[in-house]
Design goal:
With 145 residues, the protein is mostly helical. The protein has helices at 2-32, 37-56, 62-65, 68-72, 81-90, 93-105, 109-139. Helices cover 79% and strands 0% of the residues.
């Protein structure tokens, strides 16, 4: 139980750090590659639509659940806190695209703080709800009970 609590806190901390970096520097990162927020909005929508379509069809998504080789190494939970649990399982391509798009919509610092507050509440809920079932849910392949 203590290992699960520690893992949940590590995952929440790593997720908060990644979210903060994406919220504060995401637009500059995509701008470095010559991509505008509007272009990224279209690409992010395509990624989200693909993920949603795969979920509706019951397909597992490698970018969220890891490859078969990565799934075989899920036994040692402590070493997996950052990869593949935090990134890409919790903060996958859809979440990253969503954060950059919402950060682009925030015109003021107050708007960015509001987006950060919503992300903080979601991460706190994730941390609180995942403590008991974290090991069970990641050790069980998607679609099986």
């Amino acid at each position: 139980m203590a290992q699960q609590r520690s893992l949940a806190l590590k995952i929440t901390l790593f997720s908060a750090i990644i979210c903060a970096v994406i919220l504060l520097a995401g637009q500059q990162i995509i701008g470095f590659f010559g991509i505008t927020v509007d272009q990224f909005r279209i690409a992010g929508g395509v990624v989200l639509a693909h993920i949603a379509w795969s979920m509706l069809n019951g397909n597992s998504i490698t970018s969220h659940h890891g490859s078969d080789a990565e799934q075989d190494h899920m036994q040692d939970l402590a070493s997996l806190a950052f990869y593949p649990i935090t990134f890409p399982m919790i903060l996958g391509p859809g979440a990253i695209a969503t954060l950059i798009i919402y950060a682009g919509q925030a015109d003021t610092a107050a708007g960015l703080i509001g987006v950060g507050g919503v992300v903080g509440v979601i991460l706190a809920l994730l941390c609180c709800s995942s403590r008991r079932s974290l090991a069970r849910s990641i050790a069980t392949p998607c679609g099986s009970s």
